[in-house]
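tokens incoming
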């Protein structure tokens, strides 16, 4: 399995692997040992499409029997036009079609000794954390995005199904849940928020009830892809504190909010939801309720029509917002996106220059925020142990694979354990600590 793209695609790969293992398939660590190769593609940006095509070509060259799935698979003619020798092409979330293609390419006789799958399914992440997908698709019509074309409209999972999956993950040893979707704030809106029983009470298919239910499991729980709608205010009081002597548990004070820009006119051209919200006031109110709140976000520079004044507004907004974790993309003209046809396309050299200025601002803010943590104490979860026995860990303020690390000196660490540390140094994005 070659899995490309975002964490949501990774969850799709996990579900495909789970179904295949249930049918008796095993998985090879390389091309040479495989009877077939599945490539789960990404088609969000032109650069991602190119990466997916390269991955398909490599799999064909190294193995020759390739099944393509994922977002780029929504356009089979495009793939077969580039790689006519692929065995099958399926779109996103078409798990059964992938399994059928694997059955045809590499049939296996049923065997009860190997047809056993753990209750939590098969995961591509370490044992102590897992991505938890709560919905598919998106109802927004952002000008730069083709996700609704690739994955369809919002389709929420019933709340009891999500909570039961989370229970199984907890029973299997998972200690951290990362909640993902295209718009976590809109969870359940397509279903009109019906209620379902779980653990002796009724729970609405709504982000607030979902957050309460997940928090009750006692796991570290992070909410990703949150839009700053008014009802998100109700989530902040549910979050635990991370600065105390007691180890944090439940809903972490962490929000991943894809702001994308700050200037009202740019947001209007982007067709962004919640574009009219006063986000600076909202952030201040949230931080007043829980001072430990960490906010990460992503932004786009060089969107068509973006003026120097609008870009400077973004830099000024960044200084005022003081976000904790920030990523930035240079705008790409994605095939099929409405923004591709907008006038006043920004030259590539201007995008490069603005990206550099944005990241300089973001890095300066991050450096100052992390330096302020020197001498403080924190709780961290161990992700790896290096060859010297020191831990590569994360504080409760950092999501895996996305945010920074804390490198902890000490001994006797175990992957997945939570340890108390004292911060001794900091860089632009990472912390250094000793175990206490």
């Amino acid at each position: 399995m070659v899995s490309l793209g975002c964490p949501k695609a990774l969850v799709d790969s996990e579900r495909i692997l789970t179904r295949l293992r249930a049918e008796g398939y095993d998985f090879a660590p390389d091309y040479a040992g495989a009877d077939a190769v599945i490539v789960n593609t990404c088609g969000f940006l032109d650069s991602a499409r190119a990466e997916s095509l390269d991955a398909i070509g490599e799999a064909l060259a190294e193995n020759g029997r390739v099944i393509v799935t994922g977002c780029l698979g929504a356009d089979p003619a495009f793939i077969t036009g580039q790689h006519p020798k692929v065995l099958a092409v399926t779109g996103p979330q078409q798990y059964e079609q992938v399994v059928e293609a694997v059955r045809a390419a590499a049939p296996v006789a049923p065997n009860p000794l190997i047809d056993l799958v753990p209750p939590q399914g098969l995961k591509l992440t370490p044992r102590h954390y897992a991505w938890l997908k709560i919905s598919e698709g998106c109802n927004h019509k952002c000008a730069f995005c083709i996700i609704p074309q690739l994955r369809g409209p919002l389709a929420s999972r019933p709340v009891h199904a999500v909570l039961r999956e989370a229970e199984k993950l907890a029973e299997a040893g998972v200690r951290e849940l990362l909640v993902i979707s295209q718009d976590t704030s809109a969870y359940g809106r397509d279903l009109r928020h019906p209620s379902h029983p779980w653990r002796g009470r009724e729970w609405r298919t709504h982000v607030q009830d979902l957050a309460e239910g997940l928090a009750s499991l006692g796991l570290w729980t992070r909410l990703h892809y949150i839009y700053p709608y008014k009802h998100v205010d109700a989530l902040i009081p549910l979050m635990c504190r991370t600065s105390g002597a007691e180890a944090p548990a439940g809903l972490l004070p962490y929000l991943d909010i894809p702001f994308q820009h700050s200037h009202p006119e740019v947001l209007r051209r982007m067709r962004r939801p919640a574009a009219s919200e006063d986000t600076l006031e909202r952030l201040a109110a949230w931080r007043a309720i829980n001072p430990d709140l960490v906010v990460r976000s992503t932004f786009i520079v060089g969107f068509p029509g973006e003026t120097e004044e609008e870009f400077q507004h973004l830099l000024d907004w960044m200084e005022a917002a003081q976000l904790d974790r920030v990523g930035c993309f240079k705008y790409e003209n994605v095939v099929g996106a409405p923004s591709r046809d907008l006038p006043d396309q920004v030259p590539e050299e201007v995008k490069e220059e603005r990206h550099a200025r944005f990241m300089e601002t973001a890095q300066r803010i991050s450096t100052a925020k992390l330096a302020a943590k020197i001498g403080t104490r924190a709780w961290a979860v161990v992700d790896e142990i290096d060859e010297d026995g020191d831990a590569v860990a994360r504080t409760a303020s950092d999501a895996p694979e996305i945010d920074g690390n804390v490198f902890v000196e000490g001994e006797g660490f175990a992957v997945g354990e939570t340890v108390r540390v004292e911060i001794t140094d900091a860089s632009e994005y990472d912390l250094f600590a000793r175990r206490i």
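note: The chain has three domains: 2-105, 129-371, 377-435.
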